[in-house]
Amino acid sequence: MFISRKMQLLGVMIFLLAAFQLRAEIIFTPAEPVVNMEEKITLSVSGTVGDLTWSAQKGQIEETGTTVTYIAPSQPGLDGVMVMDADGNMATVKIQINGGKPKGFSSENAVWEVFANRDWVKGFDLSKDKAILWVGTPVGLKKRNALTGELEKVYTNTDGLPSNYVEALLSDDRGGVWVGTLKGGLAHLKKDGSMQVFDTDNSNLPFNYISDILSDDRGGVWVGTLKGGLAHLKKDGTMQVFNTDNSNLPSNNVTALLSDDRGGVWIGTGWGLSYFKADGSWQVLNKDNSNMPSNNVTSLLSDDQGGVWVGTESGLAYFKHGGTWQVFNTDNSKLPYNDVTALLSDKQGGIWIGTNGGLAHLKNDGYWEIFNTDNSDLPSYYVTALHSYNEGGVWIGTSDGLARLKADGSMQVFNTNNSNLPFNYVDALLSDERGGVWVGTSRGLAHFKADGSMQIFNTDNSNLPLNHIKGILSDEQGGVWIVTVWGIAHLKKDGSMQVFSGDNSNLPFNSVNTLLSDEQGGVWIGTDTGIANLKNEGSWQVFNTDNSNLPNNYVYVLLSDEQGGIWVGTWGGGLAYLKADRTFGVWDTDNSDLPDNEVWAIRSDDQGGLWIGTRKGGLANIKKDGSWQVFKTDNSNLPNNWVQTLLSDEQGGNWVGTYGGLAHLKKDGSMQVFNTDNSNLPNNDVYVLLSDEQGGIWVGTWGGGLAHLKKDGSMQVFNTDNSNLPNNSVYALRLDGQGGIWVGTSGGLAHIKLGEPQ
After folding, report:
1. In the predicted structure, residue 148 carries a pLDDT above the cut 60
2. Fewer CB within 10 A of the end CB, N or C, for the chain?
3. Domain 122-340 belongs to what topology?
4. CB atoms near residue 504 (< 10 Å)
5. What is d(CA 406, CA 411) in angstroms, rounded to the nearest whole number?
């Protein structure tokens, strides 16, 4: 994340989504947690004092105390969770987020088509005439020809969709489709192309996160929400809401819906299964009063014998019409993984079962077929959605693309492997000032030179201490500093490499968060346990809470000033200033107007002031005279209090990237906001900003792609649908010095040459 043009020359802020190590005094259980995308895992700590504060960088934390539930984000990779106790002791743990658990199984006669660009498919539905396959993804709604798979159109927020993140789909009887979104509510895309939106502001919809949609067979729809319960949108436009306060619904977290032939509705929730009968009465089934393997219901399917198949996070259950249960799991059957994500009838008395560990076909005769990435062309182990194909096959949505298993034996495969890049997840970028770029990935360092050649550095062919690269900084002498998840390396101009770790140097901790040049050939290093200055002649100076007034050892961001001092943003201790005489000044929520002690971004201005972006408190400005001004959602137009990145507008104002959109705070104090509702901004999670040096800015978003907001106010969007951008989550931006831009994403590296066709 690059704070200003000056910061581009001086240093680079590295966001560590991983590599958090344990404190000796606070112990996590499990010590090395692993979880699949959007799944839950229990985390516990010991050795703490008093009340605890938990936070996750990208996932979510439920509950409080020494044991909490962590909900993984919708992207594979690594996340970090922090806990702080009443005495200010703090520890962090690294969480590995997988797409699914591999299961070995040999299967033959599998025939596949895989459609790139490998978007994560969240759901799909076939039109009533079976001509259109509607595909919901985190980056919009896709309309495909159901016979050929050809992409015909993509609907996004620019077409009126309230959010590009599509969670649920349901075709209507008139050629349109109902679209449930994440954070945007419910949309009805009609056959004529018009779009009607229902959300918490303009209707009785209880929550804008839509998890499932079900027809009521009378022209209305049932709508399941994540936290608001169940809504019934009737044909006349009225809406009735059912929740834990006004009904027997066991949980407001509705996960699946299913109708039966008796006019009732089955409702899967995070705390059991409910049956809302046609007469208005309720039946609730859970682990306590039935043989359900888990209360967390993920999917539902009826059969032609009056029974209901129930997918849960702990196995598959069949609730027969007579009230008896049959349970399938990895211990008593060939189910490849217990977390069942999707169910589909094969129209022959059997069922297709999507899991986090692959696809299973349980046939009518009890025989199992298993499909995974090892024995088939299934794009990912994580199956997200299933739908029948009208020629006897099945559509399969996965976390890494859409596949079609056909019945005629034909196969077509698309992929994106076109270079020597060691891994597609790009964490860091740095221009080599000669038209090339350094690329940091989780499997090594690549140098993509201007002549098109690529040189790879990894643990096999160099002294690199670990292949996971989190940041790169120029040493201004033709070499680079390289931050790995376990120490740093100095790759010099002559090709030699020197490695520094806690074992062979005074580096206080191997988990490094940020680097900054000291302008004398040395480097400042921010870690989980303090700050270190490695000087040009090789000596070290370390600052921590024990030997200085550093308020917190977790150093997140560094910025130098023209007086030889260093501004230090910490995670939990507020803002510190290390003066040229090496004494500290500290600003926190107790002794100043700093709105939050978690500092994420710092930028200096040309009036001698400082701008501070925080995680929960918005944006703060310390002026040259020492006075403060704070901008939050309740006293300004700031779209969200989580400020992730700052950039000067070169006219005395600030561009502010937040978790809820982009803001332009002008020199006169006015603020203009850009979000998915009022502009072409592709996603409100703004992660990185970069000046285009022509009065406009580049905006990297998490999940929406890259936007170019030009000086004239127009905005051009680059995403996986309309360009060669490899992934819509943009983490790093760098100008190439020749009018183009390097773009680091979670799916690879892209180079945009401006003025040429994209």
Report:
1. yes
2. C
3. Methylamine Dehydrogenase; Chain H (2.130.10)
4. 11
5. 8
Cα 264 off chain centre by: 36
Q: Which residue has the higher pLDDT, 223 or 183?
A: 223
At 152 the pLDDT is 80
C-alpha Rg value of the chain to the nearest Å: 27
Higher pLDDT, 754 or 658: 658
pLDDT tier, 432 (very low <50, low <70, confident <90, very high otherwise):
low
Tell me the residue type at 450.
A
| CA-closest candidate to residue 433, choices 450, 445, 421 | 450
- For residue 718, give the DSSP letter: E
Q: What is the pTM of this model?
A: 0.45
CA distance 163 to 179: 10
Closest-CA residue to 487 (of 498, 473, 474): 498
Please provide the CATH number assigned to the domain covering 27-98. 2.60.40.10
Q: In the structure encoding, which two tokens stand for residue 490, read together?
A: 């100095």
Separation in Å, CA 483 to CA 82, 568, 733: 21, 18, 17
Q: Can you tell me which residue has the tokens 């919809």?
A: 205
DSSP 129: T
Structure tokens at 148: 């050929």
**pLDDT tens digit string along 41-70?**
899 998 888 888 787 756 788 888 899 998
Number of H helices, E strands in the chain: 1, 68
Provide the token pair at 111.
Answer: 């025939």
Query: CA 332 to CA 312: how far, in whole Å?
Result: 16
Mean pLDDT for the chain overall? 79
240-244, 453-457, 590-594: least confidently modelled range: 453-457
Order of strands, sheet of 610-614, starting from the edge strand that comes earlier in the sequence: 599-604, 610-614, 619-622, 628-631
Question: From the CB of residue 518, how many other CB atoms can be counted at a distance below 10 Å?
Answer: 17
> What are 586's two structure tokens?
């500290």
Pairing status of strand 555-560 against strand 34-36: unpaired
Q: Contact, 77 vs 423, CB < 8 A?
A: no
What type of residue is 10?
A: L
Identity of the residue numbered 423 = F
Q: State pLDDT tens for residues 659-704.
A: 999 999 998 889 999 999 999 999 999 998 999 888 899 999 988 9
Q: Using a pLDDT cut of 70, give the percent of the chain over it.
A: 77
Residues counted in the chain:
758
Q: How confident is the model at residue 105 (pLDDT cuts 50, 70, 90)?
A: very low
Question: What's the CA gap between 50 and 26, in Å, rounded?
Answer: 13
CB 433 within 8 A of CB 737: yes
The region, left, alpha or beta by phi > 0 then psi within -120 to 50, assigned to residue 585 is beta
Would you state the pLDDT for residue 471?
A: 65
Domain ranges of the chain: 27-98, 122-340
**How many CB atoms sit inside 10 A of residue 411's CB?**
12
List the strands of the sheet with 383-388, edge to edge: 112-115, 401-405, 394-398, 383-388
With CA atoms as reference, report the closest residue to 399 among 6, 8, 37.
37
What pLDDT does residue 90 have? 60
CB 648 within 8 A of CB 633: no
The Cα–Cα gap between 109 and 99 comes to 25
Strand pairing of 34-36 and 90-98? parallel
Bridging pattern class, strands 77-84 and 67-71 = unpaired
